[in-house]
Amino acid sequence: MRWVRCLLSATGLSLSPSTSWDWDWDARQKNSPSKATRYLLLVRHGQYDFSNGKLTPKGWEQAFATARRLKELNLPLQYIVSSSMPRAMETASAISSILESGVALLPTNELLREGAPYPDIPKRSSWKPPLSYHVDGARIEAAFRNYFHRAPPEQKKDSYEIIVCHANVIRYFVCRALQLPPEAWLRLSLKHASLSIICIRPDGRISLRALGDSGHLPPNLLTV
Question: Which N-terminal stretch is annotated as signal sequence (predicted)?
Answer without folding.
Answer: 1-21
